[in-house]
Amino acid sequence: MKHIKTVQKSCIDTSVSTGCGECQASCQSACKTSCTVANQKCVNEKK
Amino acid sequence: MVHTFKFEDILLALDVESGAVHMLDELSFNAVNAVNSGMDPNSLPYPNEDIQDVLNEIEELKSGKMFDCPAPLPVNRGGQNVIKAMCLHVAHDCNLRCKYCFASTGDFHGERKMMSLEVGKRALDFLMEHSGKRKHLEVDFFGGEPLMNFEVVKDLVEYGRESEKKYDKQINFTITTNCVGLNDEIIGFINREMHNVVISLDGRKSVHDSMRPTVNNKGSFDIIVPKAQKLIAERGDKEYYARGTFTSKNLDFAKDVEALVDLGFRQVSVEPVILPENSPYAILAEHIPSIRSQYDLLAKMLLSHRKEGKWFNFFHFMIDLENGPCLKKRVTGCGAGNEYVAVTPDGDIYPCHQFVGHESFNMGSVIDNNLREDIRNKFKECNIETKRACSNCWAKYHCSGGCAANAYIFNGDIRKPYELTCELEKKRTECAIGICIKEREENDKV
Ligand code: SF4
Ligand code: SF4
Q: Which residues pair with B342 in a beta bridge?
């Protein structure tokens, strides 16, 4: 492509098998005043 | 939904639903913006064939499910009622008198009080009994200042370790401390037992001392810094955060992040204060433009420091594009009041640490093993699909619906996100994506 370069492919896992809930609760990690989940890892390093 | 933005010298497009990111040239940037605003891209001042090229490229991306993807079908968010994380308020008292403290300098608008070992054990039992099949659990020692009740913290960790075996679970203990009470013994204990330590430190000495005085109204910077430095020096690779707060008095907080980095802290988080508009320290709408430019400055500083080998991390600029959380996590967010609860020194349960003291959110008690499911259900139903502002927001899968406590405190409703924090969250998300892409491009060059 000449004008658009994809730098990150689709990456939000919508498969039904997700949602195991083993990951960290987001507010526990550092800030305690806001929610941000994008910086969290999925604990199942599946990809 | 496609969100376009400029980060430093690059133009980017985030496909909201798929999470794909594209780098654009000026022509395609303008064309996507035209389409987004309902304009005919052919009316743009470029040769028609170039515009057609762009439109063809967009079509190709659409068929590859990387552009303007439809929202996925809602996933089942019911699931089991499981509590996996707990904030233990082991001390409703503090040895500092921080001017912006949401806990009203430690007592949460109540009596100054310590959690007894018995109540703490009941709380851990409660967590074990309500955690269903989850293996990984989290317990944060919080306050006030948790080190004011260190003996109980120590005994609870020991008790927790026994419970882990009994219930076949793994508890990640963490602690949020102002470091005043640290000594060699406590540092050793924390570095052995705590999965993460959050160190409250605001940045420049002048900023820190003016906001975080001792009970005798002296600065606390010189007491804290050497102890905190010792703690992280002995911590090895284990996680920690130097966590500061900025207020209307230090809107140039990029300098505070820099000060923390200069002091040797590599994991840094500096957050806007949460205070009502009538406070002299409150962040107001009029401050947003300067905060946005501070985030830009900070992003630039982070990139240049890392390039020079002076690596550091800013909590809100971290992003894991490749292996980020699943959709369910992105939709349900922090889990307050559902998967996550806070417990007071008396054993009362609240949706999270920020709701403690708001009586209408008292969810029951760990003492009599009672949990109000009506309150829990309200929190469970509060997610980015049910909140109107969030379902239409481009940052929804990165932010996950923001902070319910802020929504309640500022808008009186856990479902109405506080707009000011939304603006900041969106800016930080742009920076986070921008930094990630820039660093990848740099790495590809080498
Ligand atoms: S930025 Fe605001 S509107 Fe957007 S998802 Fe977060 S809380 Fe909701
Ligand atoms: S409601 Fe806010 S403070 Fe409470 S856990 Fe969620 S994000 Fe954190």
A: B87, B350
Q: Shortest CA distance to B272 belongs to which of B257, B251, B290? A: B251
C-alpha B424 – ligand 1 centre gap (Å): 10
Contact present, B329 and A43 (Cβ < 8 Å): no
Give the per-residue pLDDT at B102: 74
Contact A10 B336 (CB under 8 A): no
Assess contact for B86 and B341: CB atoms under 8 A: yes
Nearest-CA distance from A20 to chain B in Å? 8
> B290-301 in b/e burial notation, b at 16+ Cβ within 10 A?
ebbebbbbbbeb
**Cβ neighbours of residue B184 closer than 8 Å, sequence gap 6 or more:** none
* ipTM of model over 0.85: yes
- Contact map slice: B 323-382 vs A, CB within 8 A: 323-330, 333-336, 339-340, 352-354
What's the token pair of residue B435? Answer: 């930094």
pLDDT in tens, B58-87: 999 999 999 999 987 766 665 678 999 999
Using DSSP's 3-state secondary structure scheme, residue B245 falls into: strand
In order, the DSSP letters of B398-424 are: HHTT--HHHHHHHHSSTTS--HHHHHH
For B275-330, how does the pLDDT look when each residue is reduced to its tens digit (9 = 90+)?
A: 989 999 999 999 999 999 999 999 999 999 999 999 999 999 999 888 888 888 88
Give CA–CA dist B128/B36, Å, rounded: 49
CB contact under 8 A, B19 and A31: no
pTM: 0.94
Q: Name, in order, each residue with C-beta under 8 angstroms of B291's C-beta and a sequence gap of 6 or more.
A: B251, B272, B283, B424, B427
Tell whether B130 is within 8 A of chain A (Cβ).
no
Strands in B10-15's sheet, in edge-to-edge order, are A4-8, B21-24, B10-15, B2-7
Taking CB atoms and a 6 Å cutoff, what residues make up the pocket around ligand 1?
A: B 384, 389-390, 393, 395-396, 399, 401-402, 417, 422, 425-426
Per-residue pLDDT tens over the stretch B373-403: 999 999 999 999 889 999 999 999 999 999 9
Please write the tens of the pLDDT for every residue from B246-267.
999 999 999 999 999 999 999 9
CA distance B429 to chain A (A): 9
> Which member of A28, A38, A47 has the closest CB to residue B140?
A28
Q: Which residues in A1-31 are b (16+ Cβ under 10 Å) and which e?
A: eebbebbbebbbbbeeebbbbebbbbbbbbb
Q: Rounded to the nearest whole angstrom, what is the distance from the C-alpha of residue B340 to the centroid of ligand 2? A: 9
- Whole-angstrom distance, CA of residue B85 vs CA of residue B336: 9
Pocket residue to mutate for ligand 1, from B17, B384, B408, most atoms within 8 A of Cβ: B384
- Cβ neighbours of residue B226 closer than 8 Å, sequence gap 6 or more: none
B79 touches chain A (CB under 8 A): yes
